[in-house]
Amino acid sequence: MIRIGTTDWGDFPVILAPMEDVTDSPFRTICKRFGADVVVTEFISAEGLIREALKSRIKMQFGATERPIGIQIFGSSVDSMRKAAAVAQEAEPDFIDLNFGCPVRKIVMKGGGAALLQDIPKMIAIAASVVNSTRLPVTAKTRLGWDESHRDIVTIAEQLQDAGIQAITIHGRTRSQLYGGKADWTLIGAVKNNPRMHIPVIGNGDIDSGVKAVNMKDRYGVDGIMIGRAATGNPWIFKEIQNALSGIPAVPGPTVEERIAVILEHLTTSIPYKGERATLLEIRKMYSGYFRGVPDFKKRRMRLMTASTLEEALLILKEVSSGDENCMSNG
User: Fold this and answer.
1) Co-location of 268 and 222 in the same domain
2) Could you give the CA distance from residue 295 to residue 319 in angstroms, rounded to a whole number?
3) Considering the domain boundaries, does residue 250 fall inside one?
4) pLDDT tens for residues 276-309?
5) Among the listed residues 249, 314, 321, the one whose alpha carbon sits nearest the alpha carbon of residue 279
6) How many CA atoms lie within 13 A of 153 on its CB side?
7) Does residue 74 share a domain with residue 145?
């Protein structure tokens, strides 16, 4: 059993990764119901929390059914990250997670996320400062290194552990790879098998099925796995993985009706949370996942992508549910 602070994460936790405009409270709640053991908020700007920016504050909101939950923060300075951690602590999550791995240009150009892989002393200083300033357990998420010439994760992980980090999640790519190519789990395994390491090591990258989850667990000995892009519009991935880990044979995927029921839940719970316009914009990146494998869906998907009101989206979803070919041909 993995225990972080006072919270049990299970024997082999399957964790929902923090993703901007994806892992908000309504979607996290859905993923928990389908088997996510632990969830993490969208990554939140330290500066935004310090300035009390409304968007940053909203990202910290969560419900009791989402626990155990971590609030992930990113920033470029020791002082701002320490102050942001104090703000995050007020929301009473189960842990605080430090983003040392986001490769997105707008984050890196500001010195946050994976940019800190170019300044390891600052990364460790941030980790130590946050650990020493909060009563909550602190975890970290990072990558193998900055580029192929600097894949320093084995020593980085040791230093983060020494700074007081209680669990580390490693994405099996460098920053320079962004999300291209294949994730390399060999160095994740090297961190796990390093005799100096005693904190949980969570693996992340390219796990999109129950079979792959079991394979990575068995092959590299990690303590848990984190699911990112494979969960976008696909909360059923957690049920598939949990079944595979338990030795339960694979079952058919969700029916169209089951998919639509979850989309309706997602829409109707998101709108009170962030408004109709933002909800309809953000869920667009989910439709491909929600309807993956559904034949002849492309035309309706294009209409959903341009739906400007909830009423319009619901009408299109009703057409999908009824299988109305005439309606589809009007797209």
Assistant:
1) no
2) 14
3) no
4) 999 999 999 899 899 888 877 778 888 899 999 9
5) 314
6) 33
7) yes
